[in-house]
Structure formats: C-alpha cells, structure tokens
User: Which sequence fits this backbone?
C-alpha cells in the first residue's frame, strides 16, 4: 500500500536529515508519517497529465545585481554566535565523511 | 573490495597494454568577479579567515541570495568560448551536510545548465566534447588540526567561510579524453581559454582551477565504457597526469586479476603517488535536488549575450590556426603551440607584417623569446622585425642575433646599436676576402676537394673563417664568398 | 486606555502633532505587556532598551520639526522569526535560543523609516510550523478571549498581543495561513500580501516559495497603513516584485458599488455553522453596499492542503538543514561532526519540526520526488488555474478563514493531521501567491470571534482592502479586539 513507511525507511530518512533518533522514535514517526502520506496521497491520484509543475509563485526572470562590493561583517560579529571557534575560524569535531 | 582490487592497489607494474584509458574531466573554475556569486562580499584570495563574509554567504537564517550579473556574463563567456549552446537555465539546491557549506546545501545548476553541448579543440586538433558548463557556488575551506593535517586522523577541524559563495563554473567534459597526456593537454588548453576570456586567473596553485578526473579502462577496440572511478585532489597538471596513469594501471591490474572495478571516489596522494578509496561508508549520496525557490530563472537575452561576448579575444585554437597559416610549415606545430601558449603570437604576426621572415620569427619566439615570456610580450614588433631582418640579410650571424635578442629582452633598445656595442658589426668584405685567402692557402687539400664538388668540406672551411675572425664573420656571407670563389 | 485601543493611526497622528510623546506611548505599551504577558505569553523577548532609544529619537525628530513618518511612535511587535539586531531571534526553537542576528530584516528597516518602534519579539509555533502556537519551545501562547483556548498559529503571539491591547499592530508571517488563521481566532485583522510585495530578507525561511510577511491590526485601515510602510521592492530579495507597493489606504472609503464578489462554495461545507454563517452575512453586507455576489465552484482548492503538506515540508527540510551546530545556535558535543549534527538537531528541534523535516526529506528523496513533490507542484498549478478561472468573473472571493473558532489548548496536539486541517481555507492563496486577509466579523461558539476571509488575485490588494473595509463596516463590533482581560471561561 502506498504511503506506508517502514521503521528502516524512517531511519534512512533520519540519517539523510541528520536527525539522531531512537528506535522507538523511528516507530512513532513511521506511524505518523504514514498517516500524513496516506492523507496527502489524494494528490497522487489526481490526473495532472500535461500540467506543468509550479516551483515559484510568479515567473520572474533575470533578477541580477551589479558586481559591486558591499561591506562584510566584522569578524567578532561573525564568530559571536559560534558554539566553538579558534584562530578566527569555526571549530568542529573530527570529520568522518568525505566531501561529495 | 575484491581481492583483485587489493592486488591492483600495489601493482601498477604491468602497464595498460591492450587497454584504452578513457577520461572525463570536471574542472571547477573560480570566476574573476569583484564580489561573490550571491552577495556583495569581496571575491578575494588570501584574506584573514572569516573576514570576507556576510549574512548571505554565512547562510544566516533569513538571508537570501541575489545573483551576480558579472558572474553570469563570465559564465556565458566561457560557454561561448567552448562553443556551447547558451540556454535558459535554473538554479537548484543540492542538499548534503558538510561543515564547509554554510546552508548545508549548495546552490548549483542541475537539469538546466546555462551552457551545454560544446567542445574544446586541443593543440593537436582533437576535439573534446563539453557536456555542460554550469554556475554554482564554492564552499568554505576546512583545515584539519592534528594527525598530520589528514582529515580522518585529525583531532578537530577549523572552518573559514571566506571562499564560501565564490562563483564557480563547473566544466564537465565528455569521456573523450584518452590518457594522461591528453588530459594534461585538455586542462592546459582550457586554462588558456579561461585566462584569455578573462573569466578566470587560472591559478591552479591558489585553487582557482580544480580538476577531478573520471577514469575508466576498456579493452582496446571495445565500444562500451568501463566502470569509472572519480579521482580527487589533483592540484597540478603533474598530479593529474600521474594520477590518471596510476589509476588506469590499477584498474587494468584489477581486471587482469579477474576482479571488478568498483565505482567509487578515490583520493590522489601526491607524496605516495597513488590513489586510495575515499568512501568511509557505503551510503550512496541522495542530494534531493529541487528548484531553488529564492532565485528565479536565467534567460540569455540579447543584452546578456552581447555583454558576455563583447570584446571576446581570438582564442588559442584560432590563434594557432592563424600562426600556422602564416608560417606555412606543418612541422612547426610544437613551436606554434608554445608561442600561442605564451601569448607571443601577436609579436610574430606583427613582425611578419613588417617584413620579417615568419619562420625565423616563429623560431626565435619559440626558443629564445620563450625563455623570458614576460619581457618578450613587451618588446616592440618593429624592433623584433628589424633584428630578424639583420639576421636574414646576413648582417648578423644566428649566434649574434640571439645575443642581440637577449639584450633587447633584458633592457630593450635598438638592435643595430646593441649589435655595434657588442662588436657585431659586419666584417668588411675586403677583410673577409683576406681571411679567405689565408684559409685557402693554409688548407690546399681541403680547398681542392671543395672545388671538386665536395660540399661537406664547406662546413670545415666556414668554421676556419669563423675562428680566424673570432665569430665576427656572418655564416651566410662566408658561404656566399666560398661559393663565388668556386664558381 | 492601552495604545492598541487608541489605534495605531490615532497614536501616530498625536505623536506627529506633538500632542503625545512616543516615549509615553511606548511606556504604556510596555506596561500593558507587563500586565498581561505573564498570563498570555505573547512575547519571547522585549527590545525595551532599544525601543526607548528609538522612541526618544522619534520625539527628537518631532521636536526639531521633522516628520518621523506615518507610523511615528507606533509600538510594533514582531514575530520572532524576523531578524533583529535589537533582540534575539529564536523562531521559538531551542536550536536558536539566545541567537541575536548581526543584521536587521528589511521590514525592520522599513518600519524604522516609517517612525515605528519595535517593542519585542512574539511567540510562534517553532519555525512557524503549526496552527496553535503550542509547538513553541518557550511554551504556548493563550488566547486573550479565553485563556483556555489557543490563539491560532503560527503567528499566535503577534495576534494575541494585538488582541490583548499590548501593541496596536504587529507583524507575522504567513506560509499557509499563519497570519490569517490566528487573526481570525483572536478577533483581529490579518493580511497576507501578494508573494513578493513584502521583502522576505531577514524572515527566517520556513517554505521559501510560500512565506510572506504581513500585518496584524485591530482595523482594516491600520493594517493598510502598516502594509504600505513595509511593502515595496527590495534588491536583497530576488523574488521581490518590481511593482510599487499597492496604495490600499486610498480605497478604504470607496465602497462596494460595482465590485464583483464570489463566494467559494466548496469551503462552506467544511466549515462550522458559525464560520459559514459569517461568510454569508458578510456577502450580504457587500451586496447591500452595491456589490454583485455569486457563488463559485472551485473544487481544486480543496486539494491545496495535500499539495501544501508536500511542498512546504520539502522546502523546510532544506531551509532547516543549516541548523547543524557549526556556526550559531545550539551544539550538542560529540566526537565527530556527523554525530554532533545529528544530536544537535535531535535536541534542538521539537517534534513537529522533526516530523516535517523528515516528511520533506522523504518526498524529495530518490524514487519519491516525482510521485510526491513534482505531483504536488502540478496540483499547485491546478490551484492557480482554478483561481484564474474564478477571477475572470469576480474581483474578490469570500471564504471562511478557519473551519471553526479557537479550539481548546491541547485538543489537537496529539494528531498532526487534525491540526493541519485548520489551514484548509488559507493554504490555496499561498500556493497561488495571491493576497488574502481575515476580517473579524461575528461572535461564534463560546463568544469567540469569527473571521471572514477576503481573497484577491495577484496584486489585487486594492480590491481586497476595499471589500474588507465594507465587510468591517457591517461586522459585529464586539467581535473585534482589543478584548479586555477576562481570563478562562
Ligand atoms: Mg559541482
Ligand atoms: Zn557574503
């Protein structure tokens, strides 16, 4: 049946979304998300053959700005909210994954 | 990883005989704009960390991107130079988490890139297809602290977002490149085009140009493509060539040992001279692309196209054609490439237009002037033409002419004056005749053979005259004098 | 009398004329907040120090003979997802607790240029995801009409602050009804402008293609004045429209003669009798003022809800990726960055945000994009086409704002779907990018206010405000805030 999510799928989505969830939460989300998907499933049954998708409310084109510098932030302001910083840079723990 | 693949890690001995190496390159090129792609922060290399950032390029909540007109023009300029179709395009979000990416998505072009379906012509005449050349934003820069600076051994990492949001054009070639040498040729030619168009400063060492190589191998004569590996961290032409050679040999070794090449991303280690697998986890990327709601489509209207192609310079391929045609000598292709690469072709063409011998001009440009290209690009074509004419007329010997050229490159000045200062005034005809008399008298046997038709002796006799005049004699004048005595 | 009871326009007129000081108006507003906010929890933070400086500045301008602008000295509350240097911007989320942006949203600069004084930041459903302001890390806001009920959401703090007379006007944001629905539930006017009329620069994004900032006020005229102050092209927002801001104040006295009004028949069946009755009565008011009124069938609009709950979470999943513990906000330490991201987000986001981030991630992921996301975008097109069909024959549409009056706190928190239905009638305008507004019209069940929604085509604000002014003139005056303190009933 369409719109039914398994706990494994939920775990996979949580990994993609970088949300650490427990197995128990996986089960809860599986139920809730399945219910929502079941409800919105109506849109999948609508006949939309030949209907183009809308991604933006209006069809604006070529909104461009001049290549002219504007002031940057002071570094104190940049780092003010940083959970951790060192040598003027943001400090993060070890990176295990590779940059795609 | 299969056992075969592991064998391949070390092998790379047997070479790739019987296989064809197929390469596609992805080149990320930083555009020479004053500001970043979506904000007014300076696009400048080398500023103190996190001083070239604002709410937009830091991805602060609530900030919005606005597209830089100049970046668009330069992207279209690249497309035009690469013979691409410049199309209506849209921006998408490429979603993945990485600490150097402020928004945890990259704004890039996906299924509708601004440039598509072009080609780059290499010096040998081969054409490499360009699949697309699209606009996207750069990421920040991460420094790994501890563990020798290697990512996985590091204790922690530090992030500088100065580079985040710098405009890039990613140029994706078709898998038309065959082997390391052609790959190097492609990148250096592409670099020349990017520099010529003013789109980029082309500095690989500063990361203005970054290359990833998709490498696969297939049995010679077969049509399909083998499984490819993407090789990253290629910071120079040398790395590129070495990495492709290594990777191709590794893949062939895997196949020869009955293994199967695994599609993966591999990291080139310049010090160790090898590629190694980068994937720490077996999880395929799922970038969840969707249309960037904060940006609107880009349509190449007349104004944009006009500004993009305005004052487009003659590009290297066309300049090579022009120079080759001028010289009319197919064997001089390497010299033509060198001269165009160094930007000395205008000098040669101008000197020829002023009456200089084109072949001689090319030779002097490709060999002597090429030693000091910076100075050579500054010398006056008239001066160069006069010097070449002195040589052609026999007033200066080749050796003398090169010495004068070196002086012109060093400190400028008038070639005749320099020749005089260096004591290269032509030997008066009477003096040359007197020296010749002496030589003929002291070497009667050789003279007889020469008169008898043995041209090989001419070289010896000329050498004797040269020695006697301490090089002041002009080779051509000596040859002419010898010939007239024999007649 | 509280500043809100005086009305923003009357206050501004007095301040500009030098009859009242902006400083005294501000102190009255702050006193009203101190008096009722402990009970209602409309505010996440006050910007009182900065507000006092601003009020003094306004008074100095008046003293020097300079006009501080049309909203001189008017205290304004901002939804806490609008960036301000003067106070933290948290989106009512633990993940941004204590974060103060190093920049002001464009609307903040525009309000300042109009002479208004920002007093503080109002509560919302976390990241604007919700319809009751119960999904807030700082606790729920209560409805000033009945503190046992929700104020609606997500701009519940702004709506309740205006309804309680703490401020005469406030700003909210509307992605699927988040201004209009709480306005209706709190008995105030709430406007969602045409997408692109008000700059989104500095509005913390929920669903970028749907979000729009708009005013909440006690009267249609005040809402028009605030909209005019904040509207207009902004070169920091690529989706900002070039067109000049609609001048709505001019048309408020134009009446309804010649106006063609359509009543959205499809919505009437799904609304409570209170809400349906209010729409029919409002239509009669318009007809009585010379408008032509007809019922129009727009069944496609009912599919908007499903499309919305695919599109908005998809965009949100991407917009909220940046809260990763690296640059600002919460970080939960971990030995590696990936685990740190995951734990930070797990601890920082509430359940509704997580649900929508997961839903959005799912519908964009490989294999599901076409079936869900792309299909929802096609339905979005169908909604826009349905509206276009209707607007070929009418100037504005009339509909209920909500299916019912304000519901009791906690009554819908256990079932996300039940809560989503609260936005059934407001969502289509966001999908189409059209303007729509809610006008308090009658009292319904439990003496709670009922709003009527006026919808118009893109940039149809003038016709919309014209109709809204007429509807307001025929409304039950008791249905409109500010409401005196009454407590739970
Ligand atoms: Mg890329
Ligand atoms: Zn910036």
Assistant:
């Amino acid at each position: 049946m369409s719109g039914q999510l398994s706990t494994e799928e939920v775990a996979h989505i949580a990994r993609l979304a970088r949300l650490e969830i427990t197995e128990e939460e996986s089960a809860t989300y599986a139920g809730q998300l399945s219910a929502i998907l079941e409800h919105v499933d109506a849109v999948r049954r609508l006949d939309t053959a030949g209907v183009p998708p809308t991604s933006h409310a209006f069809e604006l084109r070529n909104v461009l700005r001049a290549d002219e510098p504007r002031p940057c932030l002071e570094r104190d302001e940049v780092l003010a909210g940083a959970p951790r910083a060192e040598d003027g840079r943001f400090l993060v723990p070890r990176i295990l994954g590779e940059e795609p | 990883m299969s056992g075969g693949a592991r064998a391949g890690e070390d092998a790379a001995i047997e070479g790739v005989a019987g296989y064809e190496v197929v390469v596609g390159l992805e080149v990320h090129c930083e555009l020479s704009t004053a500001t970043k792609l979506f904000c007014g922060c300076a696009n400048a290399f080398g500023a103190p960390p996190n001083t070239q950032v604002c709410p937009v390029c830091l991805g602060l909540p609530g900030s919005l991107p606005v597209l830089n007109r100049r970046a668009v023009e330069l992207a279209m300029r690249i497309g035009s130079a690469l013979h691409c179709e410049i199309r209506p395009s849209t921006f998408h979000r490429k979603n993945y988490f990485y600490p150097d990416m402020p928004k945890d998505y990259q704004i890039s072009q996906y299924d509708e890139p601004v440039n598509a379906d072009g080609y780059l012509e290499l010096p040998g005449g081969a054409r490499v297809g360009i699949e697309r050349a699209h606009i996207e934003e750069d990421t920040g820069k991460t420094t790994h602290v501890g563990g020798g600076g290697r990512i996985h051994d590091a204790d922690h990492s530090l992030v500088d977002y100065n580079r985040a949001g710098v405009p890039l054009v990613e140029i994706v070639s078709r898998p038309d490149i065959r082997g390391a040498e052609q790959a190097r040729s492609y990148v250096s030619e592409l670099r020349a085009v990017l520099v010529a168009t003013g789109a980029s400063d082309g500095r690989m060492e500063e990361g203005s140009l970054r290359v990833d190589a998709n490498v696969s191998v297939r049995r010679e004569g077969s049509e399909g493509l083998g499984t490819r590996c993407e090789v990253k961290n290629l910071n120079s032409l040398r790395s590129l060539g070495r990495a492709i050679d290594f990777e191709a040999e590794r893949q062939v070794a895997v196949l020869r040992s009955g293994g199967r090449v695994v599609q993966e991303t591999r990291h080139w280690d310049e010090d160790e001279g090898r590629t190694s697998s980068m994937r720490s986890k077996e999880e395929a990327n799922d970038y969840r692309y969707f249309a960037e709601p904060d940006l609107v489509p880009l349509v190449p209207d007349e104004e944009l196209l006009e500004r993009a192609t305005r004052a487009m310079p003659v590009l290297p391929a066309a300049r090579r054609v022009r120079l080759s045609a001028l010289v009319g000598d197919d064997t001089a292709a390497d010299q033509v490439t060198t001269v165009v690469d160094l930007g000395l072709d205008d000098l040669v063409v101008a000197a020829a237009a002023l009456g200089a011998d084109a072949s001689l001009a090319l030779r002097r440009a490709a060999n002597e002037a090429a030693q000091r290209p910076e100075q050579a690009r500054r010398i006056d074509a008239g001066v160069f033409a006069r010097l070449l004419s002195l040589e052609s007329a026999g007033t200066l010997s080749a050796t003398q002419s090169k010495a004068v050229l070196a002086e012109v490159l060093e400190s400028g000045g008038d070639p005749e004056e320099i020749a005089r200062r260096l004591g290269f005034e032509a030997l008066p005809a009477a003096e040359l005749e007197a020296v010749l008399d002496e030589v003929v008298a002291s070497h009667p046997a050789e003279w007889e053979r020469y008169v008898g038709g043995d041209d090989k002796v001419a070289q010896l006799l000329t050498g004797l005259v040269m020695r006697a005049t301490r090089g002041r004699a002009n080779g051509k004048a000596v040859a002419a004098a010898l010939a007239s005595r024999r007649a | 009398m509280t500043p809100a009871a005086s009305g923003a326009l009357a206050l501004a007129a007095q301040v500009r004329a030098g009859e009242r000081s902006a400083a005294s108006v501000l102190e009255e507003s702050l006193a009203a907040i101190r008096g009722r906010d402990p009970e209602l929890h409309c505010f996440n933070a006050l910007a009182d120090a900065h507000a006092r400086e601003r009020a003094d500045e306004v008074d100095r301008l008046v003293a020097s003979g300079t006009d501080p602008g049309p909203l001189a000295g008017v205290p304004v509350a901002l939804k806490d997802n609008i960036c301000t240097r003067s106070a933290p911007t948290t989106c009512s989320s633990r993940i941004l607790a204590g974060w103060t942006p190093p920049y002001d949203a464009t609307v903040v600069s525009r309000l300042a240029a109009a002479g208004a004084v920002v007093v503080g930041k109002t509560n919302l459903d976390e990241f604007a995801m919700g319809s009751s302001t119960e999904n807030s890390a700082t606790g729920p806001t209560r409805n000033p009409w009945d503190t046992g009920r929700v104020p609606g959401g997500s701009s519940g703090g702004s709506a309740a602050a205006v309804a309680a007379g703490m401020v005469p006007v406030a700003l909210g944001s509307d992605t699927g009804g988040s201004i209009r629905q709480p306005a209706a539930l709190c008995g105030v006017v709430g406007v969602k402008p045409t997408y692109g009329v008000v700059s989104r620069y500095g509005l913390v994004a929920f669903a970028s293609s749907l979000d729009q900032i708009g005013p909440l006020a006690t009267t249609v005229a005040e809402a028009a004045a605030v909209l005019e102050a904040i509207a207009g092209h902004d070169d920091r927002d690529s989706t900002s429209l070039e067109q000049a801001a609609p001048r709505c104040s001019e048309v408020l006295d134009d009446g309804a003669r010649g106006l063609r009004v359509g009543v959205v028949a499809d919505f009437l069946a799904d609304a409570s009798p209170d809400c349906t009755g209010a729409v029919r009565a409002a239509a009669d008011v318009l007809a009585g003022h010379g408008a032509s009124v007809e019922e129009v069938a727009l069944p496609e609009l009912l599919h908007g809800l499903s499309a919305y709950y695919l599109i908005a979470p998809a965009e949100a999943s991407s917009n909220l990726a940046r809260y990763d513990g690296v640059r600002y906000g919460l970080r939960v330490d971990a030995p590696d960055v990936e685990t740190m991201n995951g734990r930070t987000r797990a601890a920082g986001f509430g359940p509704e945000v997580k649900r929508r981030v997961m839903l959005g991630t799912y519908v964009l992921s490989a294999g599901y994009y076409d079936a869900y996301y792309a299909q929802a975008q096609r339905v979005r097109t169908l909604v826009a086409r349905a509206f276009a069909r209707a607007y070929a024959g009418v100037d504005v549409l009339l509909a209920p704002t909500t299916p019912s009056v304000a519901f009791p706190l906690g009554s819908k928190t256990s079932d996300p779907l039940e809560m989503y239905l609260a936005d059934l009638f407001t969502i289509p305008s966001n999908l189409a990018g059209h303007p729509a507004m809610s006008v308090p019209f009658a009292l319904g069940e439990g003496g709670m206010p009922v709003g009527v929604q006026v919808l118009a085509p893109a940039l149809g604000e003038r016709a919309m405000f014209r109709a809204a002014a007429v509807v307001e003139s025929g409304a039950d005056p008791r249905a409109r805030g500010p409401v005196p303190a009454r407590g739970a009933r």
In short: Residues 3-310 of chain B form one domain. Chain B touches chain A through 62 residues (CB under 8 Å). Confidence is low (pLDDT under 50) at residues 1-12 of chain B.
